[in-house]
Amino acid sequence: MANVLDEMIRVHAILEEYVMIHNAIFKFSWRKAIPIPGVFKPIDYGRYTNDLGFLASELERLLTSLNAKPDLPEVFHQYTEALLQTVQFLHTMCTRLYEKSQGELGAYTMSEYRSDVSKYKGLVNNYRSLGGTLNQYVRQ
């Protein structure tokens, strides 16, 4: 069980970093909403693209490691895969938003963005649901 907990702690650390990025992008802030010089704080999509790429790479390495350990619960594998899909999708969105912020205005239309946000919310709901199941497993 100690091995399982070590792996879960590693995934949880990645989850915490991902959630900070998610909140920085989607959580409402007056500093992001009001374009007043000195107050306005734009979203740094370039930085988040790099950070999400790193987190996705870490999750891919962890999944490779987890696949070599059949003693880990299946729900943990599923959760880690779902989290990886979510991080990768947000990475793609950030890449497109970064391109748009650099002047490529046609690179990401509002309808594409809205469609992607809807898909992203589905991915978030999936990994959260699996997280609830995983939490129940840990409490047993």
What is the H-and-E element order? Answer: HHHHH
The SS-based structural class is mainly alpha
Q: How many angstroms separate the termini?
A: 12 Å
Basic shape: elongated
Detail the poorly predicted runs.
none
Strand content: under 5%
Q: What percent of the residues sit in helical stretches (DSSP H or I)?
A: over 70%
Q: Largest sheet at a glance? A: none
* Residue-averaged pLDDT: 87
Task: Give a count of the beta strands, DSSP E runs of length 2 or more.
Answer: 0
Any idea what the radius of gyration is? 17 Å
- Helical segment count: 5
**Domain unit count:** 1
Explain what you see.
With 140 residues, the chain is mainly alpha-helical. It has one domain. It is built from 5 helices and no strands. Helix 1 packs antiparallel against helix 3 and helix 4 runs antiparallel to helix 5. The N and C termini lie close together (12 Å). 17% of the residues are buried.
